[in-house]
């Protein structure tokens, strides 16, 4: 589906998000009210009619996936290049407790002259990563990078690629996890150290943002390997992945 030249101008990315505050009580009164309203539509598999989850419980468990109630703690990016006909993957992460700073650093990279004409690719990126980042830029009062500015653009005029969307082949009913594609294409699983449900506690309880960054990078590597597989090209071995 992609040529080597096309793959050379794709920036693969993944983000990790956590709830905006460690405790629900730390939200302003207005945001607590807004979350209580939002929580009415948030469904939790474990709850039932006899034991409904409180807004506080839902905040701890689900707030990270909503840009208004969450924050980005890591953006990992990677790209494929060829050296002597061998594919390599290079990885970089922007992470920390200062969301405005990591967003600014990410924007500076995206708007550098060497990134002109590049596309962004994430798994389920059109539904999550790209809009979440755009919203967090605005909530931090930072003008989003041009590639994330979608106002007035038709869907096919954006620079977004979505590996899940590509796998659909026009099927609008299908949701396919990245882990499933990795298993199907015999790509080493990106879920080796932790899972998404643990990110918030690793951040708020352990303060281990570097561990979160390493976890995030694995998804970037997996997404790049998936697009190589979509293009019927060989996977990049571990020794040619550079962090």
Description:
With 243 residues, the chain is an alpha/beta fold. The chain has a single domain, classed as Nucleotidyltransferase, domain 5 (2-Layer Sandwich). Helix content is 37%, strand content 18%. The protein has 9 helices and 6 strands, in the order αβααββαβαβααααβ. Strands 5-4-1-2-3-6 form a 6-stranded mixed beta sheet, sandwiched between helices. A hairpin with a 2-residue loop joins strand 2 and strand 3. The chain starts with a helix and ends with a strand. The model has no long low-confidence stretch (mean pLDDT 93).
Concise overview:
This protein has helices spanning 4-7, 29-39, 55-62, 99-110, 129-139, 163-168, 178-184, 199-206, 209-230; strands at residues 10-19, 70-83, 86-95, 119-122, 160-162, 241-242.
Report the uncertain regions: none
Q: What is the domain tally?
A: 1
Helix/strand structural class: alpha/beta
CATH superfamily: Ribonuclease H-like superfamily/Ribonuclease H
Helical residues, percent: 25-40%
- Say what the CATH topology is: Nucleotidyltransferase, domain 5
CATH top level assignment: Alpha Beta
How much strand content do the residues show? 15-25%
Helix count from the secondary structure assignment: 9
Major sheet summary line: 6 strands, mixed
- State the distance separating the first and last CA atoms: 26 Å
